[in-house]
Amino acid sequence: MKKILIVFAALFTLFSCNKESSSETDLAPLKISFQLEAFGAPIDTTAFYTNNSGEKFKITAFKFYVSLIEAANSSTNSRSAENESYHLVDLADPATHQFTVSLKNGIYDQLNFIIGVDSVRNVSGAQTGALDPAKGMFWTWNTGYIFAKLEGKSPSSTAPFQMFTYHIGGFKTGENAIRNISLPAQFQIGKTNELVINADVQRWFDGVNTLSIASKATIMSPGGMALQIADNYATMFSVNKIVNP
Asked: Where are the alpha helices (DSSP H) in 60-174?
């Protein structure tokens, strides 16, 4: 009996090791890169652009959270999600424009993520990494994160120094600005090296809704206007290219 138990224990240990090893080898890296654009060209912080309302504007800050990244296959309903998936993309810091995720080997036709931070993390207090309040994306006066931020100057603005300031957030019922993004893309984890995604700031002004700087130069709280802007910037993403070996 003792010998049988020893053999069983050895087999269990071997099986566990093989299972862990198999799980680790099932994962492969995928680089995700964001190209931050305005009207189809890289953002130039020294240039003035013109939105569809005929308003000239200049960009001084542009940030957004990319969270809960997932590869999906719509035919097989298979999915693979990144663990601890929170990334802050910041125009002012080129190092944040690309990052690598680990996902399960397989063929996928969608890249899914949210713009924002899920409700659990919004009420979890001070955090680290991309969610560190020092990143300037956490409201000190109101529980929760700023999901996306756009700031700049415009002659059309009635705010001091002709500034416009759009800090979009809110996760509670009736003011939930979290937006789900699903991008069609044929790629294979384990083979595809990189997905390059465009994010065009023009869509903040000229997306589903029209945003006029003259009529609203400052949005810094959850609510109706924030929801409209979130609907706008949810349309700013498109897959530029898929890089294979």
From this structure: 119-122
Residue 168 carries which side chain, given as an amino acid letter?
Answer: I
Residue 200 tokens, joined: 């065009």
Contact 151, 61 (CB under 8 A): yes
Residue-averaged pLDDT of the chain: 90
What confidence score (pLDDT) does residue 23 get? Answer: 53
Mean pLDDT, range 165-176, rounded to an integer: 94
Look-up of token digits 């002709």: 162
- Helices (H) then strands (E): counts for the chain: 3, 14
HEC sequence for 158-189: CCHHHEEEEEEECCCCCCCCCEEEEEEEEEEE
The answer to whether the beta carbons of residues 179 and 217 sit under 8 Å apart is no
Q: Which of 87, 92, 227 is nearest to 151 (CA)?
A: 92
What does the pLDDT look like over 77-135, one tens digit per residue? 999 999 999 999 999 999 999 999 999 999 999 999 999 999 889 888 768 899 999 99
d(Cα 170, Cα 199) in Å, to the nearest integer? 21
